[in-house]
Amino acid sequence: MSATEERIALDIHAHLAPVLADRLKDIAGVTWKDDALTIDGYTLAAKSVYRPEALVAWMDENRVERAWISIPPPLYRLGLDEPVTRAWVNYANDGLDALAARFPDRLSPLYHLPVTHPALAAEVVAARAKTSKARFAMPAGSQEHQVILSNPAYGPLWSALNAVRAFLFLHPCKGCDPRYEPFYLHNLLGSPMETALAAAHLAMSGVLERHPDMTICLAHGGGGAAAVAGRLERGQITGRPGADTGAQRPRLAFKRFCVDCIAHDADALKLAAAMHGQDHVLFGSDWPFSMGLPDPHKQLADVEVSFRRQIFSENPKNLNLLSD
Q: What is the pLDDT of residue 141?
């Protein structure tokens, strides 16, 4: 079977922005005007991000059977206080439910977790897991808001995720380092580094070892995680200050992560597969954004056939991700 004929069982990285017009009037900082959301001064202008029918049409065109939908980064709103965050998260997750309900055989929600309020995030996990599949998405961290995933404050969140055997998709958000502003580097370089940083904190703190029943998937091929795993391990072995916590060596711990296949380079994807496990690479499109895989069969045509088959169908089946 040629790449152009293959079917994709699951897309774990697709974005939709929910619009519940009757509820938006009660939410400060967000408006719906001219078919676009403006969130805290930023207008999310991509029209297709509001249209689940456009996603399903793209899925039909590209033979994608199912997609898990999460909100895009402009909707993360990391600077809100806890009461406002609670209202916003409820809105976002109810909105994801409404979007998925329009195409229940094709779309399922990855419920948003507020990374700047870990106790609230743990509440969301416990509540949503009672009525829905335990599948979530969360920002990978934030320099501006001093989010450090190895902080003990996140302990209840990891315990809650582990207790319900949850799937958690970690997606980077924009960094605030001014050196990333030229050349669009806040996205092209900053995002992969944010993802690698999250992976390092989760591995070197022992979070992954202590919570073996949750599945964490890293966006964009794991970012830079695979490239730095050996260096992190060398730091442990040579006793760099604070590096050796007694946790698993990073090159072993990183095999606990899944990653999506959005690496934009066949050799980079091979590296990610070598580090995280070829059986832990899942298909992600980053729909509808251009930095993803809008033409997946063409963009992944240089991936070896048997590996591509794993990504498209075998890995989600073997990881028990296809039950709905």
A: 82
